[in-house]
Specification:
This protein is 51% helix and 22% strand. It is α+β, with helices and mostly antiparallel strands and 431 residues long.
């Protein structure tokens, strides 16, 4: 079979050249369309369900949230297994699907089951899906540099301006904020005063909620002009919270300030983000969506950063502390340099041993055609160009040229034998 294929190729050299050119062009297009990343994505095809119920212990979270969710999610079609993890105030459920399942189809199935299991969860608990990213989706980290602003102001800029701007970039699944202080109004209740005024904590909470909302009225007309009645009651300062009446005792209103202390402070933190021992920083993590081209997503995020930076306060600027694009570029440069070096070495070896430039050219041509064809297979099997796949191609170049060298040497040997036999026949004829 191999001999017939070689014989057919020799007799139809033009067809072989056309097919080789077609494969090379197709492979070049596949190189352009193939997703580029530095780290291979070996994570499982999973959907994360995150539930928050602050102030509760791990055992209570396990019994009332994790266990009902796990038992309900196990019946989803094409699920391999379900993992779960309960911790203080939070529950994580990992639904692992088969490898060939579409991620967004899986997220829809999980979302359907979550909606049916909500009735078995405690009141006020709302499970939500995690981002459609993977364990290697953190492609870019940045911090905000601003010497004149405190950590609370920087975190507010990150959460309410930068985050919304960068989330619109195609291919970005989430912008995860870190560092700084999340501003909040804190009401510190004095238990002795609650006992004195015969009040409970729930009463204070209900009073604050009732006085922190808006209500709409009806429309009425006056002098042929229509007016819409609307009242704004959102709290805007600590003084307004302190003046909220809780109850009336002996004709005197008991305010929040009489039983508690109100202050503006940051949310309780479990850790800090420090950069190179130079102090705390505020920033964000760009999480890439599943299956996207990491190099293209990073470039789009950087362009969007330039646009977002125009609206930042004076003195505030981005500082990129982790950029996978640099690692990706180094990987591409490494494989390109390796290919060039191997082509040169192979050419020198073939010319030295065979002393025939056409044989060297036929072997060198095999390298770009074979590499281009390999990218066709990478796209067919949905494999990105990363350190592992590119290194495999670089290592396989030795196997690629080995076949060409053996065939060229074998052909050269047989031609030499035929030529020697022809010369011998010529000498015999002359005699």
């Amino acid at each position: 079979m191999v001999h017939k294929l070689i014989e057919w190729s020799l007799r139809n050299r033009f067809i072989v050249l056309v097919l080789s050119s077609g494969l090379f062009i197709w492979g070049a297009i596949s190189v352009r369309d193939n997703p580029i990343d530095a780290i291979p994505d070996l994570s499982e095809n999973q959907v994360i369900v995150f539930t928050e119920w602050m102030g509760r212990g791990p055992q209570l979270i396990e019994d009332q949230i994790t266990y009902p969710l796990v038992t309900n999610l196990q019946g989803i079609p094409r699920v391999k297994y379900v993992r779960a993890n309960s911790m203080f105030g939070m529950s994580f459920v990992y639904v692992i699907f088969e490898d060939d399942v579409d991620l967004y189809w899986a997220r829809e199935r999980v979302l359907e089951r979550i909606s049916t299991s909500a009735q078995s969860l405690p009141q006020g608990v709302s499970p939500q899906l995690g981002p459609e990213g993977t364990g290697v989706g953190h492609v870019l980290w940045y911090t905000l540099e601003a010497p004149d602003l405190d950590l609370g102001e920087l975190r507010a800029i990150q959460d309410w301006y930068i985050k919304f701007g960068l989330q619109n970039v195609p291919g970005v699944s989430e912008i995860a904020s870190f560092g700084g202080f999340q501003k909040q109004y804190q009401i510190t209740v004095n238990p002795n005063k609650l006992l004195y005024y015969d009040l409970t904590v729930n009463t204070i909470i209900a009073a604050v909620r009732a006085n922190n909302n808006e209500s709409g009225g009806r429309k009425f007309e006056l002098s042929d002009i229509g007016y819409v009645i609307n009242t704004s009651g959102y709290l805007q300062s600590t003084q307004e919270i302190e003046d909220i009446p809780v109850k009336t005792q002996n004709g005197i209103a008991v305010r929040v300030a009489d039983v508690a202390t109100v202050q503006m402070a940051g949310e309780t933190r479990l850790g800090i983000f420090d950069l190179n021992g130079e102090g705390e920083r505020v920033g964000g993590i760009v999480v890439m969506r599943y299956g996207e081209n990491a190099a293209q997503v990073i470039e789009r995020v950087k362009l969007k950063m330039e646009e977002v930076a125009r609206g930042l306060p004076p003195g505030v600027k981005f500082n990129i502390i982790y950029d996978r694009g640099e690692l990706i570029q180094e990987s591409i440069d490494s494989i390109r340099n390796t290919l060039i070096e191997e082509m040169i070495v192979v050419s020198i070896i073939v010319i030295i041993f065979l002393f025939h430039w056409r044989s060297a050219l036929s072997i060198i041509i095999q390298i770009p055609i074979t590499i281009a064809t390999s990218f066709i297979l990478l796209n067919a099997f949905d494999i990105s160009s990363n350190i592992m796949s590119l290194t495999g191609i670089a290592l396989a170049i030795g196997v690629i040229v080995d076949n060409g060298i053996i065939m060229s040497e074998n052909a050269y040997k047989h031609l030499a034998e035929r030529y020697a036999l022809w010369e011998q026949q010529q000498k015999n004829n002359d005699v």
